[in-house]
Amino acid sequence: MQETVGAGHSDYTGSKMGMWFFLFTEMILFGGLFLLYSVYRTLNPDSFHAAARELNLILGSANTIILITSSLTMVLSISALQNGNRRTSLCFLGMTVLLGGIFLVNKYFEWEAKIRHGIYPNAPLLLSLGHGKILFFGLYYVMTGLHGLHVFAGIVLLSFMFVSVVRGTTSSANCGRLENSGLYWHLVDMVWIYLFPIFYLIT
User: What is 2-200's CATH number, 3.40.47.10, 3.40.50.1220, 3.90.226.10, 1.20.120.80?
Assistant: First the structure.
């Protein structure tokens, strides 16, 4: 019995360490993009300020509230499962997935509005706005697009975990996978907490 418990603890620790290593590589990726943004912003402060005023602050703020709330529901889902309350855990996990979907829908409408007005990479209108704005919107699409892909991946991951909890594969006795999924989701939220001010609040 002791060997089984020890093996389970080892697997849990190993998976947790693996997740932290993966999150570290993700932070390096986004950290490099943030550094690149900082350099270009320093070189083109006026253009970056002017371009930021063309973003939809209301949608950006709404998405910030949505993701912060989704982090809370993720924590509540994990806590409920740890306490053996599967139904409550599923409720909060479903809310997290729903909030992630709403975030992507809002981002779609924001992108669609920009593209419809001719502001997208290599668009004639954008190319006529000057080098600084071209850099700003290029970084905007790359960084928010990459973040959006991570949100989508998180939704897929959490949906898989929802099914796993429903089937009983993940329970209070072995909720390490849900905890690791929560860590990933918190990273996604944290990245947006940095993206929001540098793109929407520099006016």
Answer: 1.20.120.80
